Structure formats: C-alpha cells, structure tokens
Amino acid sequence: MLVLVSALLALIAPPSIQTPTSYDPSSPFSVPIEVTNEGYLPMFSVRADCALSAGGPPSNLKVSDDHVIQTIGSLGGRRKATIRCDLYALHAGFSQAQLLVSISYRPLVWPFRFTASHMFAGIFDEHGRLERWIEQ
C-alpha cells in the first residue's frame, strides 16, 4: 500500500503560477494569473487566494491591503486555467506592492490539501503607476 501511495504522489506535481506579461494599464491591480497543473493526475477543489499589500511614503506606510478568493474547481492533468485577481487599490502614489498568489488543491482522492504559493513584486514608474509584475 505504501508503495502505491508513493507512486501516486510521484505523479503529482505542484501547479505552476505565472503572470501573463500583458495586462490592462488602466486597471493594473486586476491581474490575470495563469495556473497550470504540471502533473499528470487531476487536481480537485482547486482554490486561488490572491492577497495584495501596497504602500508608499512616508515611512512605507501601508495604504492598501486587499484579499480575494476564487474557486477553480477541478483541473485535469497538464491543463491550464486563467483567473483574475481583481483587487481594489488606488492607482497612484504607491512606491511598492506585493501580490501573493496561493493555490490550494486536493490531488486525486487524497484527503489533505496541498498549497503552492508565489510572490510577485510590482514595478512602478516615477509617477507611482504600476508598470508590470515580476516574480520574486
């Protein structure tokens, strides 16, 4: 039995999380996130949790702290899904922002949830406008 469980777990790969390079500059905090099941077995009860923390001067004051959860459902092996992290935030005056995207899921009939998290940093121009996101 242990060998069977070990073999099944070997087929389960954590999902990859990528931010597409294009986004809407008029709504920079509505971020499309591509989630890919890198494994060969399906994932069930897939949920995406997006959390934004943004701030700026003086003294790196935190002025926005937003959070949204989306349900993807099932994601078959080697399949992709795109979600939108629609986070409320002011559009000017920030000098820093971080976006944490966590994907939780249950592989096959496994009773416990797995979680994969990725952190993205916002790159701002000299006017405090978000130009792009990069993975940290």
Would you mind describing this structure in some detail?
With 136 residues, this protein is mainly beta. It has a single domain, classed as Immunoglobulins (Immunoglobulin-like). The chain has one helix and eight strands; from the N terminus they run αββββββββ. The protein has one helix at 2-11; strands spanning 16-18, 30-36, 43-56, 61-75, 80-86, 96-107, 114-124, 130-135. The strands form two sheets. A five-stranded antiparallel β-sheet has the order 4-3-6-7-8, with no helix packed on it. A three-stranded antiparallel β-sheet has the order 1-2-5, with no helix packed on it. A hairpin with a 6-residue loop joins β6 and β7 (114-124). The N and C termini lie far apart (39 Å).
Characterize this entry briefly.
The chain is mainly beta and 136 residues long.
**What is the SS-derived class?**
mainly beta
Specify the overall morphology: elongated
| Helix and strand sequence | HEEEEEEEE
Q: Spans with pLDDT under 50 lasting ≥5 residues?
A: none
Helix content: under 10%
Count all strands and give the number.
Answer: 8
CATH topology: Immunoglobulin-like
**Separation of termini?**
39 Å
- Main sheet specs: 5 strands, antiparallel
**CATH architectural category:** Sandwich
- What is the alpha-carbon Rg in Å? 17 Å
Could you report the average pLDDT, rounded to the nearest whole number? Answer: 82
